[in-house]
Amino acid sequence: MKRVGVIGGGQLAWMMADAAQKLGVELVIQTPSEHDPAVSIAQETVFAPVDDASATEILAQKCDVITFENEFVNLQALSLLAQQDVCFRPRLEALAPLLDKYHQRCYLSDLGLPVPQFFALNEVENLKSKIEYLGFPAVLKSRRHGYDGQGTFIIPDFVTLEQKLSYETTTKTLNQPLFLLEKFIPFERELAVIAARSTEGEIVTYPVVETQQEQQVCRRVIAPAEITPNQVVEIQAIAHTLLNSLEVVGIFGIELFLTADGKILVNEIAPRTHNSGHFSIDACETSQFEQHLRAVCSLPLGNPALQYAGAVMVNLLGYENSHSDYQSQRQQIAEIPQAHVHWYGKTESRPGRKLGHVTVLLDNQNRESVTAIANGIAHTIESIWYPR
Predict the structure, then answer these.
(1) pLDDT at 169 over 50
(2) Spatial CA neighbour of 371 closest among 201, 211, 264
(3) Strand, helix or coil at 25?
(4) How many CB atoms lie within 10 A of CB 337?
(5) Residues in contact with 277: Cβ distance below 8 Å, sequence separation at least 6, in sequence order
(6) DSSP alpha helices (H): ranges in 5-149?
């Protein structure tokens, strides 16, 4: 029986459990807290922060291959383990250009992939002219450790930028390159695609989805996105270019913008399973979690196709500080036809925290009406979940 070590013990690792059982794989988790979701499903747990490389060395002794639930790791320290023949999938060299958002932007741009205009805020010689070139509003991002809207700010003017960065003058040099500033894209829709690459170099892509964000946090995912066949082909080509260039083994989530004039731009890359792919658990022949384990265990990749006309996934986000398990709301949502509720078992709720998600499958629908029907279902779910 193959043993897979997973760095990170949140809901993404927890959702690997069913796939691991199906494939005859045991999961060994490295995570800091006994209350983290994946502890309950792990064969063994190494209790340590995800960036603790000495703990990862212990993890490596317990498993055949190591993968990642999140990317907040110490690559430099892990590289010493890789030199000792510890098998990481994806390989550390594939993660290296992605963990810093400025380096990620540079990498994508060097590949010829379309990205918003950007620069790092340590490039301050002509800061004001560069910002005027980008125009306002602009988007300020933390270069490391930003997720679920954390570390992303929409900046309306230069005064706000100064305040956000705590600049004393407009030309003060940052001691460390902590931020990325990029052009705000007045997108028509946000899109995403999950893609997997095997040890043999085979790539499969899931249906392109529409993602709907509020305050930079994903609220809803609609599968499939209503875009043109040419746009689907373009997005699949982006995925192939990226995964082949990095020689990835495993699943990647690719977030994109669709502009009003039909252009596709790459927003961000997640080198792991991704919120935009949760619909696949219930709606696809092979879930993104099974696909990831198949890839890292050198098994043949599965069929990523939708098995229904469509699906809508709604995140159940915390809206208060509480220890409630929201059983009443969950039961009401579960009564929606073809609804599948996934509750992550977290012991504490706080505003914006992902506590679970629900996927509703759409049967026998006219393809042109998927988005309208999905939006209606999402509204029903949210009217149950959030207090009036």
Answers:
(1) no
(2) 211
(3) strand
(4) 8
(5) 192, 194, 206, 209, 251, 253, 287, 288
(6) 11-14, 17-23, 53-61, 75-82, 92-95, 101-110, 127-134
The rounded distance, in Å, linking the Cα atoms of 95 and 340 is: 33
| CB neighbour class for 99 (10 Å; exposed up to 12, middle 13-18, buried from 19) | middle
Side-chain half-sphere of 133: how many Cα atoms within 13 Å? 11
356 contacts 338 by C-beta, under 8 angstroms: no
pLDDT per position as a tens digit, 131-167? 777 889 999 888 887 665 567 888 898 888 878 776 4
Other beta carbons less than 10 A from residue 108's beta carbon: 25
- Contact between residue 23 and residue 289 where contact means Cβ atoms under 8 Å apart: no
Contact 295, 89 (CB under 8 A): yes
Tokens encoding 346: 């977290």
In one-letter notation, the amino acid at residue 309 is: A
Q: Name every residue whose Cβ is closer than 8 Å to that of residue 216 and which is 6 or more positions away in sequence.
A: 148, 149, 152
3-state secondary structure at position 142: strand
Rounded distance between C-alpha atoms, residue 305 and residue 281, angstroms: 12
- pLDDT tens-place string over residues 314-369: 999 999 999 999 999 999 999 999 999 999 999 899 998 999 999 999 986 655 57
Token code pair at residue 124 = 């301050």
Which pair of structure tokens corresponds to residue 143? 């270069």
3-state secondary structure of 300: coil
Residues making up the chain, counted from first to last:
388
